């Protein structure tokens, strides 16, 4: 059969092109001759290198923050005079995340920081509001009927009035503003007026879903009261910890914490369980630290809200946490799998007679050692430092704030271009 001349010509042309292309590829740099389409946009590539989060921190008068620590300032503190947290700060220390986040933005000329302060809000990714709302609650009349609460209320009113005059709040409706509020009663009077913002909270035990949620907010650890345990390297860690299960704290609690008194009755009388009623005094914290360091497992039931500081004391003490709280939310859980170094029991399981204790006694030594080693490897993520240290709790918190930015930016940009009321909210 005779092949048409046009087909022969087309085939010859294709062959010549292939040969020419092969020559070009072999004799020159492909990237200089061909502009291939980018699979990743330049902006995405830049984000993958993780430059520090750019944070604008408002220069609030000292009455909103450091003066509550007992220091006197005429103007907002700076990198040269930022105060140290008082060593003997008692139980208030567990709610001091606000202090550590503020302090992390005071540091200058340090490489490897997760967040850096910018002086111009136009350059910022987020806006940090350094109001010590938890300390304000603890300092200004903890009882709602106490006359001192007027101070806490007025601080909240003054702060909101100020923020609403700023162009950055007006631009975003506060969505890109970060408020630490780790005490469940922090910002108790006017929290609903800032509920579009990013809250840094320990859990969601006493808030309504339209005010605070896992969707928009960041879960933080409590600041540990127990000292860190840097030299925990015994030849046989399992045998060196003589107590099977340890708990020291208050057993009479409200709400989710009612499980504590039930557990105390259920676990009473076992020789290898140390469960003591105690208040968080200085001597009690020292005793608790010693007890956790000498125990294989540490009991962590809910407090008045689903979480408690005790969990993070156990972590820095390298005591395997036994978590009994059905509604607990945990910090950094998108990066850390707590099942690698913790055991979880529902309240129903924990209250079955002999169920919990039998599970712990049957737990294999080899598995315990494996979990203990993993716990040691992650415990630095729950330590608070000033100046901040790479990978510490504050660094992890700023990473979590960064994770919220895509949705924040979506909401800000979308609302800025809408010409009618948000139609999605009417569906």
Automatic annotation (TrEMBL):
Keyword Glycosyltransferase: yes
Protein name (record): Pectin beta-glucuronyltransferase, family GT47
Pfam families: Exostosin_GT47
Family stated for the protein in its record: Belongs to the glycosyltransferase 47 family.
Entry-linked PANTHER family: EXOSTOSIN HEPARAN SULFATE GLYCOSYLTRANSFERASE -RELATED, OJ1485_B09.5 PROTEIN
Family annotation (InterPro entries): Exostosin, Exostosin_GT47
Compartments in which it is found: Golgi apparatus membrane
GO annotation, cellular component aspect: Golgi membrane
Bilayer disposition of the protein: Single-pass type II membrane protein
């Amino acid at each position: 059969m005779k092949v048409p001349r046009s087909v022969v010509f087309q085939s010859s042309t294709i062959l010549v092109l292939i040969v020419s292309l092969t020559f070009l590829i072999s004799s020159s740099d492909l990237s200089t001759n061909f502009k291939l389409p980018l699979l990743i946009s330049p902006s995405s590539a830049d984000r993958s290198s993780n430059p520090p989060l750019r944070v604008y921190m408002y220069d609030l008068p000292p009455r909103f923050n450091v003066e509550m620590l007992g220091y006197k300032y005429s103007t907002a503190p700076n990198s040269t005079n930022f105060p140290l947290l008082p060593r003997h700060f008692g139980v208030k220390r567990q709610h001091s995340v606000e202090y550590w986040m503020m302090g992390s933005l005071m540091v200058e000329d340090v490489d490897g920081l997760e967040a850096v302060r910018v002086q111009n809000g136009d350059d910022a990714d987020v806006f940090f509001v350094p109001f010590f709302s938890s300390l304000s609650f603890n300092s200004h009349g903890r009882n709602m009927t106490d006359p001192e609460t007027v101070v806490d209320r007025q601080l909240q009113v003054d702060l909101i009035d100020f923020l609403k005059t700023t162009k950055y709040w007006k631009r975003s409706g506060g969505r890109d503003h970060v408020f630490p509020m780790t005490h469940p009663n922090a910002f108790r009077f006017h929290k609903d007026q800032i509920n579009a913002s990013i809250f840094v909270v320990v859990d969601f035990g006493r808030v309504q879903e339209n005010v605070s949620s896992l969707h928009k907010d960041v879960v933080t650890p409590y600041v540990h009261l127990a000292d860190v345990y840097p030299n925990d390297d015994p030849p046989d860690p399992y045998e060196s910890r003589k107590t099977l299960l340890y708990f020291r704290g208050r057993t009479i609690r409200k709400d989710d914490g009612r499980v504590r008194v039930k557990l105390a009755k259920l676990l009473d009388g076992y020789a290898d369980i140390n469960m003591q009623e105690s208040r968080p005094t200085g001597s009690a914290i020292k005793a608790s630290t010693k007890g956790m360091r000498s125990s294989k497992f540490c009991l962590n039931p809910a407090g008045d809200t689903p979480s408690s500081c005790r969990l993070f004391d156990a972590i820095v003490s390298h005591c395997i946490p036994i978590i009994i709280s059905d509604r607990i939310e945990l910090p950094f859980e998108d990066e850390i799998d707590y099942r690698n170094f913790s055991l979880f029991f529902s309240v129903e399981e924990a209250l079955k007679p002999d169920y919990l204790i039998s599970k712990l006694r049957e737990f294999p030594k080899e598995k315990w050692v494996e979990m203990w080693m993993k716990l040691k490897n992650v415990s630095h993520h729950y330590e608070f430092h000033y100046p901040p240290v790479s990978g510490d709790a504050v660094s992890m918190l700023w990473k979590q704030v960064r994770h919220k930015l895509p949705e924040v930016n979506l909401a800000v940009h979308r609302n800025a271009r809408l010409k009618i009321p948000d139609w999605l909210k009417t569906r």
